[in-house]
Amino acid sequence: MIKIETSVTINRPVEDVWKFISNWENFAQWDRGVLEVRQTSEGPTAVGSTLQSVRLILGLRGIGALRVTEYEPNKLLAVKGSAASVSGSIRFTFEPIGDGTQLTETREVELGGLWKLIAPIILPMQETQGRNDLANVKRVLESPPQAEANHHNKLMSKVE
């Protein structure tokens, strides 16, 4: 079992950080490996809700099934899941720090099959990814609204 904990202080209120992280559609904006996350169960997100994630793992496209295991608005969000012979969980805690938020992500990954053979390579990659992902959350949430609009406009002009 690989366990990695990463934290970042974001200069936004807990409610803003929670709203961003708990919106599954936002995952692709900050998690480098995620292509898409969508809820597959009916109703609002709660403990027991199911999700499907599509991500790139070492360049390979993988589809994973996730289940929400902890859900306490503005405090705690956790999911567990599996894809092929890899299983794990991600747990986010949200703590007010002055006018900002201390966001902590705890990842636990269990590697099976051939993945066990490359565990020494996966651990540093997971540590780096955790730091980069939280840095992306901070960057997106602390960007001025105009910067976000400009970034969106640039992306749209590339698509046209």
Any chance you could write out the topology, listing elements then pairs?
Blueprint: E1 2-10, H1 14-21, H2 27-30, E2 34-39, E3 50-57, E4 60-72, E5 76-83, E6 86-97, E7 100-111, H3 119-142, H4 145-159
Antiparallel strand pairs: 1-7, 2-3, 3-4, 4-5, 5-6, 6-7
Unreliable parts: none
Q: What structural category arises from helix and sheet content?
A: alpha+beta
Count up the domains: 1
Strand arrangement within the widest β-sheet reads 1-7-6-5-4-3-2
Order of helices and strands: EHHEEEEEEHH
- Give the overall form: globular
The tally of beta strands, per DSSP, is 7
Gyration radius over CA: 16 Å
The CATH homologous superfamily is named: START domain
Strand content: 35-45%
What is the CATH C-level name? Answer: Alpha Beta
CATH topology, what is it called? Alpha-D-Glucose-1,6-Bisphosphate, Chain A, domain 4
The largest sheet is: 7 strands, antiparallel
Termini gap:
45 Å
As a percent range, the share of helical residues equals: 25-40%
Give a brief outline of the structure:
The protein has four helices and seven strands; from the N terminus they run βααββββββαα. It has helices spanning 14-21, 27-30, 119-142, 145-159; strands spanning 2-10, 34-39, 50-57, 60-72, 76-83, 86-97, 100-111.
